[in-house]
Write a structure and sequence with these properties.
Layout (H helix, E strand, L loop, with lengths): L3 E4 L6 E2 L1 H13 L8 H7 L4 H9 L5 H18 L4 E2 L3 H10 L3 E9 H10 L9 E4 L8 H11 L8 E5 L2 H9 L3 E5 L6 H4 L6 E2 L2 H12 L1
Parallel strand pairs: 1-4, 1-6, 4-5, 6-7, 7-8
Antiparallel strand pairs: 2-3
GO molecular function: hydrolase activity
Organism: Kitasatospora misakiensis
Keywords: Hydrolase
Length: about 220
Amino acid sequence: MRTHIVWDWNGTLFHDMEAVLGASNAAFATIGVGPMTLQEYREQYEIPIPRFYQRLLGRMPSDAEWLLLDDAFHDHYHRLSVACGLTDGVRELLDAWRAAGHSQSLLSMYEHDRLVPIVEGFGLTGQFLRVDGRSGPAGGQKAEHLVRHLAELGEWVDPARTVLIGDAADDALAALNAGAHAVLYTGGSHTREKLEPVGVPVVDTLAEAVELAGRLAG
């Protein structure tokens, strides 16, 4: 069976941290929290997202505050993200992985109905056996979504020969829960210092991540 990569989208294949930061600062303003720099954001960010807001507020946001934060973030992100592009080298890496006879899919916690047209707009849909975004409420963790994603892939994919490449500690926790491997990339939402304690390989480029994936699950 082929080695399979499950790619994360936001902060991994899609280089959108400027949009994420701008949308986050707009959301913070709705509850009286001042803006962050990108470095501050990457040092503080946490999944599940309500826990991130708890850290900023010193308490869990109320239901009303959560709705304000979530709505403000997504409204601004949809506007700002249109200026974002793919991470350097993504097209070549996806092409080379397929040409080597391996398979890949895409799993994101971004809303499915918004994710699919963006992936299509970049001409990437044909690279993947499956493209799945989030269904259901925002702010949760990836583990249950990954289990469902792998189940839908069925006989095409063996979790033991699967590597999830993402930019958040939650990506690695989801992979380990599903019996898969993980490699974490430092170019997205978390600093290296936040990623290393998870105990999976941490790399600074997606090219390194793909090379490691071949060794981990090959």
